[in-house]
Amino acid sequence: MSATATITQTSPAPADILRVEPLPGRSFGARIILPSYAKDPKDLNDADFDRLYKAVHTYLVVVLPGLADLDPTSQYLLTKRFDPTCEGAYGHSKEFRHEKSVLRNDGSSVIKQPQVQILGQGNADGHEGVEKLTLRHPTHMSFHKTPLSEQEMADGYTRFYRWHIDSALYELAPPVITTLLGIDCPSGERQKIKVDNSDVVFESDVAATAFISGADAFDSLSDELKQFALGTTVVYAPHPYIYISGAKATSDGFTMVSEGLETPLDELPPWEDAKIKRLPLVWTNPVTGRHHLQVHGCCIWKLETPNGVQELDQARQTIHSLMTPQLTHDRVYLHDWQKGDLVIFFNRGVWHSVTGQFGPEGHRLMHQCNIASGVDPVCVK
Fold first, then answer.
1. 231 and 309 in contact (C-beta within 8 Å)?
2. β-pair type (157-158, 190-194)
3. For the chain, is the Cβ count within 10 Å smaller at the N or the C terminus?
4. Which ranges form a coiled coil (predicted)?
């Protein structure tokens, strides 16, 4: 008797490559699954790094989970790999620590890798060799002109702190990406983010990081406003974080209130007109070709528009009117941090903001890295 051989067919194993999982129900954002050979993302081969590069530019904010032990040098090398033109200087340079800068208390540099900043809340003595280290999470109470009342905060309400792009906005070109690593990120405590003069309330974990897509913002404009934006150049103030140090922000964190409290130009550190950043209001994504409305509303000085120059107060009003319509649930992505999340965001394609405040015993520890680019963003009309 002859026997017939039985052949069992099996599906081939999925290729061991970097995988991209878009966040469901959102216009941007994705989760990244690293291939098994790359426990450290700096070790990605060229093909997988290209997948990651395109994912960051396409989805704008991507999350790589499970990397709490990522070494600061690895984070720096990964960040630097996204921009061959950068020379390795931290995106804010030394002005980050100037005694009058509004950023001066927002972090401490890793000694062995100074492009990486230590951020968070509470005591972290000895972390990465820093003997004495007390971290302060920035909150709207000291930055906004009219902060929430004690009762509102006791009821669990908070605000968006400052919507911004990571950049010195003087002399140095804006970084292409920022990487944020959550090392110790307590989760579970919830907060309600209030928007004044609106019924919109956002809910998230305490101190979630908020993102808005500049591409969504541009696409939402009327045809007339799109033409206005495409023809407008933003002129940033010299040493902008020192320039605005005496002023206070609007309650949504989009720009500053004009009360004449800016540092007079002749009291700023020495500055040169040639180093003032004049950047297009619209930046074109080099991978997708989409236009992104990209502006740091708190640091603007003037707008050069198709209809003439707008000085400080009018420029702030114009930018505020372009930004505020984005504060809707379908436009804002709030990232609730989990221990080990490495978030990479396209700094030339999104705005982001700190949220929330910690109690007296609150603690969080994060590493942040962005590197000044060698070239400015452009608008391809």
1. no
2. parallel
3. N
4. none
Question: What is d(CA 62, CA 336) in angstroms, rounded to the nearest whole number?
Answer: 13
The closest of 222, 213, 185 to 337, measured between CA atoms, is: 185
CATH code (residue 264): 3.60.130.10
Is residue 6 in some structural domain?
A: no
Residue 4 lies in a domain: no
Q: Which residues of 304-336 are buried (b: 16+ CB within 10 A; e: fewer)?
A: bbeeeebebeebbebbeebbeebbeeebbbbbe
Token readout for 65 is 């989970």
For the chain, the C-alpha Rg in angstroms (whole number) is 22
pLDDT in tens, 110-124: 999 999 999 999 999
Angle at 250 between CA 150 and CA 315, to 5 degrees: 175
∠150-156-161 over CA atoms, to 5°?
80
Interval 251-281: pLDDT, tens: 999 999 999 999 999 999 999 999 999 999 9
In a domain, 184, yes or no: yes
335 versus 6: the higher-pLDDT residue is 335
- pLDDT reading at 96 higher than 60: no
Question: Whole-prediction pTM value?
Answer: 0.93
The four Cα atoms 288, 82, 54, 63 give a dihedral, to 10 degrees, of -120
Encoding tokens for residue 369?
């890295």
Q: What's the half-sphere exposure (Cβ side, CA atoms, 13 Å) at 186?
A: 13
Does a structural domain hold residue 9?
Answer: no
How many domains does the chain divide into? 1
User: Could you tell me how many residues make up the chain?
Assistant: 381
- Domain span at residue 327? 19-370
